[in-house]
Design goal:
heterodimer, A: 406 residues, alpha+beta, Dihydrodipicolinate Reductase, domain 2, 5-stranded mixed β-sheet, 4-stranded mixed β-sheet, 27% helix, globular, B: 108 residues, mainly alpha, 6 helices, 0% strand, RNA endonuclease activity (chain A), nucleus (chain A)
Amino acid sequence: MAAPHPEYLRFTTHRSLTHRLVLSTLTGRPVHISQIRSSSPTQTGLAPHEISFLRLLESITNGSSIQISYTGTTLTYSPGLITGSVEGLGASGGVVKCILPETIRRGVSWFLIPLCILAPFSKAPVNVRFEGDGVITSATETGDISVDSVRTAILPLYEKFGILSSKLELRVLQRSCAGPGGKGGGGIVELRFGSQVRLPKTVHMNRSPGRVRRIRGVAYSTGVSASNNARMIHTARGILNPLVNDIHVAAQYDQAPLVSSRDKSDPGAKKRTGIGFGLCLVAESSVDGVLYSADVVAPSSGGVTPEDIGKQCAYQLLEIISQGGCVTRVGAATVLTLMAMGSEDVGRLRLGRDVIGTEDVVGLGRDLKMFGASNWGLRDVDEDDSTDIIVSVKGTGVGNIGKKIA
Amino acid sequence: TRRLHGQRRSYRTADLAKLIYDQALTPSEVLKRWRGEVDEEEGDNEGSDDEETFFKKSSAEKADEHYEDRAIPILDYDQLEAKWSVDDNIESLRRRFTTATLLNEGKS
């Protein structure tokens, strides 16, 4: 089926690695990525989380081939079909297991967000259970959002594309913050993405983003006193209450997860890890589907009070709301990619100037073009006095290759 | 509209549309130019010794080395606290909330 000499799209560095691999899988174009941390003396080549992501890609696709050089600085990836969780192809009981090693410093959302972009284009439902000593469900210092934000601020974005949110489920079976030194955790998370489409619907989110009418959120304390939750919520409310009355933050208290202590003399010994606390806030607009989220977590080294976390999270949320637009920085990759994969119609998305003006979004536009999508059209919003920008995205009509063949 | 740097207006949407696909620039350079933070003719032609420039890393390489993808931006929370403690800033943000009185919409 594959051409004898596939033409590789060439990239360098580990920048946007997951997203490039996702685009490669969606468009069926093989990629060659070189200079991955090639000049770093201590951490040369692919990091543990990146290796784990490649394994995950392999387990939800059929026919992918991955080659990594000895030093790990060069990677070639030829994508296969996205099969999802098919019995006999890695899944058992309809669920693919993804075991993350304890060396991982990234939150599980780092895996979930790109996985969700692939999932609508799968042949079968994508059910993945993340477990092992490296699953961090909280936000992380490495800049990943919490699973709560994925569930309440990312998954609802799929509804606009005709992907049924009733068939999407993200279950947190065991919570965990980052372990000592920011490494590892003992969480268990299960994603069930049961809505597959032939082509995502063309989205028009070019109108006013509306006004924030309520704030929801989750405060989590794992292995530390539950009173931390109340203290984080109290401080955040103090800042946000003058602007919104309707604030409801759930408090989630859990025991720290038990993981193997890796003590050779006593293989059965267990220890607790992933202790910490954090806060996730989501502001919901009067316009359906416009969500602004903020995440702050206590660093694994400690030394901050729950009041600090509550305050920082509230200020982060205000900052994100003030950036405006219909989609935030966190959701931009998801929405813009799905728009580019849609039918050959022009969709429009209103983004804040400071959202499109980030390296991530600029890089995203370039990567999409590399993979064959059309250039974005940009223009100012002229209906009101905001400084937002309307991005016009023409779909490539790629859609679901699996559904086309089968 | 305001004019910055004498002749060149910056931060225009049309400029970004052009700059975004200019492969000669890194994304961070694109944004700097868009915001008008650098001059057009800025280059890296300072090195004189051949041997030294040979081993010197380009600025793009240096930046990439420490770069890791982040979903949550790195923010200066002290600065944010100062910003959102000012009543005027809060009041201008209030327009983005349903608690705002719509009657004042025309005035602001």
